[in-house]
Fold Phenylacetic acid degradation protein.
Amino acid sequence: MPCYRYAGVTPVVHPTAYVHPTAVLIGDVIVGPGCYVGPLASLRGDFGRIVLEEGANLQDTCVIHGFPESVTRIARNGHVGHGAVLHGCQIGEDAMVGMNAVVMDEAQIAPRSIVAACAFVKAGFACEEQSLVMGAPARVARQLSDKEVAWKQAGTREYQVLAERCLTQLEECAPLAEPEAERPRLPLSEVKPKGVS
């Protein structure tokens, strides 16, 4: 992976974490145990610190940055969907940020909350635990049910398993010209897509 020391500060990646070779880590970045960092993610710790706690995932094309002296943190089992942007904010334990959402400086997403896809969370926003946060600008739409939280937790476990598999099963290769006659399928999952309404 492209990994850059900046101003004497070197990124840290726990040996049990998986960071895709196209992700970029710069400076004060700490990736904890069992984390997953997807393709083309950008973690720019050249102003503030970036921390991914145990079991967190940051998916494809996500961007994390922050103002000087800030700490942008994804707490334990946090889940950040494709294309999201986090800037100087706190994502609570077991919380989820949906695809293409933006969470701004000093925003606090409480534990077990979900920020809906494409939401824009303004600087300084805060919510109670287990909130559904939606809109642009974002607001708390309602409280999440335990069933919805369990669905999120199951999805996060899938990414934790993916991190483990990628460490041993992902390898660079040349593409085939055509699919094989008995092309294998990927491992099945019990987690199915589900809207949060």
